[in-house]
Design the sequence.
């Protein structure tokens, strides 16, 4: 019998939660072929390493924005993931949907460019 199907649940070594094996990414270097941390813990560790934002801070930010984009107020879902918006100096400003994050980065966080774009839209509408 296959190693992956012999154990119905696996305990995450970080959060100590029993989860289905599908919650653990494959890792061919390990004997069990699964990572010791579940996807939730791996994602939180990656976010902490990249942005310095802990899971608790991320959850607080998500609750503060009611689970919606900071600009367009679109609710976050699996198909519309939350993206962390940071200033040029690296300070976290909030959570945005992918479209709004691309829009801000296109204007390079320049208020004059954004005002010019709004003026253009108002003149041509």
Sequence:
């Amino acid at each position: 019998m296959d190693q992956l199907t012999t154990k119905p649940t696996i305990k995450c070594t970080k959060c100590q939660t029993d989860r289905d094996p599908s919650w653990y990414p494959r890792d061919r270097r390990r004997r069990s072929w699964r990572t010791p941390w579940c996807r939730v813990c791996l994602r939180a560790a990656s976010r902490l390493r990249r942005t310095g934002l802990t899971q608790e801070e991320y959850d607080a930010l998500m609750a503060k924005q009611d689970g919606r984009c900071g600009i367009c107020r679109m609710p976050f879902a699996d198909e519309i993931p939350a993206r962390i918006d940071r200033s040029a100096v690296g300070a976290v400003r909030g959570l945005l949907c992918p479209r709004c994050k691309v829009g801000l980065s296109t204007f390079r966080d320049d208020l004059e460019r954004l005002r010019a774009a709004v003026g253009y839209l108002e003149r041509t509408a």
